[in-house]
Structures are given as structure tokens and as C-alpha cells.
Design brief:
The chain is an alpha/beta fold. The model has no long low-confidence stretch (mean pLDDT 96). 34% of the residues are buried. It has nine helices and five strands. Bound molecules: BIS(adenosine)-5'-pentaphosphate.
Length: 192
Amino acid sequence: MLNIVIFGAPGSGKGTQSENLIKKYNLAHISTGDVLRAEMKNGTELGKLAEGFISKGQLVPDDVVIGMLANVLDAKSKDGVSGVIFDGFPRTIPQGEALDKMLAERGQEVSIVVSLEVDEPELIQRLVKRGIDSGRSDDNEETIKARLDVYNNQTSPLKEHYKKTGKLAPVFGMAKVEEVFENITVAVDKVK
Ligand code: AP5
């Protein structure tokens, strides 16, 4: 199975590139942000809890996100796919450890961690622009800054973790969408 973690700061293009990757490699797409937003839309208990964190740009607690992931993984793995793309998960070291364990229990492992490298002014510009019509409660300048702080403090240490395992593949994320995709596929094809 091809298990790709797509990693990067808010606005780095994880969702955009996932759309292309799932088609090319026949993958299931697990975006923890999308799962949480769907829960919010449906007004579930989980959604109400998540809203409090997401609207402030904070991470939803590890136990909550990790707890919901195993079910999502098993549900999405059923459809004859060749692997999974994890978009927005893991975001903390405990989440990274939980993912390794979850995959090991299923006789699998993370194949590659594609890290989209985009500088902060470009991230802010992209998200502010998207915020004009996205309707996302976290796409405003104040919350974007909080999300970037959270990324720098809690999420980016995972890069070191994956570097040690030899799975980290940094990709320049400031080119055109198609070019970034091309460079990702070069990295993925090496581990396929
Ligand atoms: P999540 O939904 O994962 O959002 P995010 O990480 O903040 O990422 P975005 O969706 O904003 O950006 P992206 O990297 O996917 O870029 P995109 O392709 O959309 O998480 C939201 C929240 O949910 C978190 O803050 C947290 O509260 C909670 N959460 C989620 N997962 C969690 C977890 N594991 N643990 C705890 N809490 C969790 O692109 C952005 C924009 O840029 C688009 O407009 C796009 O068109 C444009 N764009 C993309 N690529 C390019 C390019 N190459 N050139 C120009 N523009 C581009």
C-alpha cells in the first residue's frame, strides 16, 4: 500500500495537491480538517467541540483526532484503493506515533512524507484571498496568524522526526500547482 503523508503549513497546498494525487495513484483521501468541518456542519457533539478550537486556530486535542482516525481509515480503505493520502494528519509528535502504530497494526507503514515548502508571506496571501469566499471560520487574518504559530510550534517538529526515518521529501511549494504536482510525483515514484 502507498501511504502518503502530505505535510505543510496552512495554505501550503496540501488539499490542492491531494486532489491530483488521489487520481494518479488511486488513493483514498483522509483530510482531518474536512472530517472535522463535516462534523461541524452536521452539528454533532464532535463538531461542536472542534468548532471551539478551529475558530481560534488551535489544534483539536490529540485524543479526539486520533480517536476518530481509526474508523475513518478503515472505512476509506475498503474501496479497492492502492493506499491512503493523509492530509493534515499527523500534526503533533503523538499523532505521528499514533499513525505509525495504527498502520503497523494493519501491516502497513508510512511510505513517504511530502513536505510542501512555502514561505509565510505567500501562505498569508493565499489564505486571506481564499477567505474572501471560502466561508471558513479560520480564514481571517487573526486566525491565520494563530494557525501559523501553531504550525511552527507544534507541527513543524514532526519534520525532524520524519527526517530521521528517511521518509521526508521536501518539495518547493511556491511554483505553479502543476509544477509542484510534477515534483511530488518524482518523489513518490521513487518509493512506489
Ligand atoms: P485543515 O483543514 O487541515 O487546514 P490547514 O492545515 O490550515 O490547511 P488549509 O486547508 O488551509 O491549506 P492547505 O495546505 O490544504 O492548502 P490548500 O490546498 O487548501 O485544518 C483546519 C483546522 O482543523 C486546524 O487549524 C485544526 O484546528 C483542525 N485540525 C485539522 N487536522 C487536525 C489534526 N490532525 N489535529 C488537530 N487539529 C486538526 O490551498 C490554500 C489556497 O492556496 C487555496 O486557495 C489554493 O487554491 C491556493 N493554492 C494552492 N496551491 C497553490 C499554488 N501552488 N500557487 C498558488 N496558489 C495555490
